[in-house]
């Protein structure tokens, strides 16, 4: 957490050089927790006039007015935002709301990277929208340096010696993470091997289909079982341990089952660094 605090402090106090042809926004409603968290890290917290009903971090933003994509457009319009930030799931599920907001002259932008290859461009885009271009460049540079430091923990561990991990995304539906997802990047950066590297990505999301039969076919090869937990996956250890058939899994029999907060592995924010640190602790 100290790394995150230092990085965030630097970003808030660095002024941004803004290209003249880039439109910036000063009254932003964020309907995705990652957008909110990243805008604060970029030093744009004061430009946020509304957050989603699921936002839970950082603490200083939680007194902002709450908005839901299930609400009427009139509430949004009355707040007079110049930008509403959403993600693809909201675009797919609530197009009527977004159409009404556009008709009212409000800009709607949908963003959500599904891999580390897209996360840096995502941060740059947020920086441009908020007029924090320089801050986004510093954020990316500092993040990369922190990643390089984290690699020193596992670089000496040969691949054959690294723990083989099943990383659960949604327990009830037996879903894991797509091989190119941010969560799998976190796992591999922490020194784990993704045993479900043959999982099939669902649409263009971070989630991948993986049946119980498929999991159990690799039962003896799973050294560690990790599950994200939170709103997307309200699971606990007992549910995993008592899942019919799961005692066949080596990690379950040996008690190497761990839970990690969704926010640390599924959100494209600086707290990815905390997720890497925590999973490394599980594995080693």
Which characteristics define this entry?
284 residues; alpha/beta; Rossmann fold; 2 domains; seven-stranded mixed beta sheet; five-stranded parallel beta sheet; 16% strand; globular
Gist?
The chain has 284 residues and is of the alpha/beta class. It has 13 helices and 12 strands.
Describe the protein.
This protein has 284 residues and is an alpha/beta fold. It folds into two domains: 2-146, Nitrogenase molybdenum iron protein domain (Rossmann fold, 3-Layer(aba) Sandwich), CATH 3.40.50.1980; 159-283, Nitrogenase molybdenum iron protein domain (Rossmann fold). The chain has 13 helices and twelve strands. The strands form two sheets. Strands 6, 7, 8, 9, 10, 11 and 12 form a seven-stranded mixed β-sheet that branches. Strands 3-2-1-4-5 form a five-stranded parallel β-sheet, with helices on both faces. α2 (33-41) links the parallel β1 and β2. α1 (2-13) runs antiparallel to α7 (133-151) and α8 packs across α13.
């Amino acid at each position: 957490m100290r790394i995150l605090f230092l990085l965030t402090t630097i970003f808030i106090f660095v002024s941004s050089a803004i290209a003249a042809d880039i439109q910036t926004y000063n009254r932003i409603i964020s309907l995705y927790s990652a957008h909110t968290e990243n805008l604060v890290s970029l030093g744009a917290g004061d430009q946020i006039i509304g957050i989603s009903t699921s936002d839970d971090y950082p603490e200083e933003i939680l007194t902002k007015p709450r908005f839901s994509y299930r609400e009427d457009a009139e509430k949004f319009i009355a707040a007079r935002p110049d930008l509403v930030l959403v993600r693809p799931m909201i675009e797919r599920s609530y197009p009527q709301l977004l159409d009404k907001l556009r008709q009212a002259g409000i800009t709607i932008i949908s963003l959500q990277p599904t891999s580390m290859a897209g996360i840096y461009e995502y941060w740059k885009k947020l920086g441009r929208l908020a007029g924090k271009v320089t801050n986004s460049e510093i954020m990316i540079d500092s993040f990369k340096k922190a990643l390089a430091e984290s690699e020193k923990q596992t670089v000496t561990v040969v691949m054959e010696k690294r723990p083989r991990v099943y990383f659960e995304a949604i327990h009830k539906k037996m879903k894991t993470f797509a091989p190119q997802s941010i969560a799998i990047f976190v796992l591999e950066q922490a020194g784990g091997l993704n045993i479900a590297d043959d999982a099939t990505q669902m649409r263009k999301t971070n989630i991948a289909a993986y049946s119980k039969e498929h999991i159990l076919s690799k039962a003896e090869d799973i050294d560690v079982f990790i599950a994200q937990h939170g709103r997307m996956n309200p699971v606990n250890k007992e549910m995993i341990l008592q899942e019919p058939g799961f005692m066949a899994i080596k990690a379950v029999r040996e008690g190497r089952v761990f839970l990690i907060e969704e926010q640390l592995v599924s959100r494209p924010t600086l707290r990815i660094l905390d997720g890497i640190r925590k999973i490394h602790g599980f594995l080693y």
